Amino acid sequence: MDRLVVFIATGAYSGYSPVASGTAGTLAAVPLYYLLSYFGHEIYIGAIVVILPLSFWVSGKAEKIFDKKDSGLIVIDEIIGFLIAMLFIPPVWSFVVAGFILFRFFDISKIYPASKMEKLGGGFGVVMDDVVAGLYSNIAIRLLAAAGIPLIYGKF
Fold first, then answer.
1. What pLDDT, on the 0 to 100 scale, is given for residue 64?
2. Is 104 inside any structural domain?
3. Is the N or C terminus of the chain more exposed, i.e. has fewer CB atoms within 10 Å?
């Protein structure tokens, strides 16, 4: 069971990247985003409903396995965070690039209340700051698109 937990928590081992493991985990989420987008909103939402509680549990177990609080090896939080960032966002490359950049910015900056969520501890604390970063990113993508920022092409 520990091997499965490590595989999931590390985003198919992308968390073992020697540099920027969170960025590697977010990159691992991109193909998953495209795959889920292909199947439509119902499947996408269903995946989030399944992955979110799984990520709480797996992150908590992985902290014990790695014997480290919020280990950098754990990237399932980046994966669910990016999926939330891209919720109801069309699978157009410019949206994906914007979503990736914005998610990494909000994940790293820990703008309130993300900073508070991280302190909750356990798997819940590991994941919830990334959920907040994903929500911020989703809102930012929509605001940029509504403002007609040239980087963002495509329509909602």
1. 93
2. yes
3. N
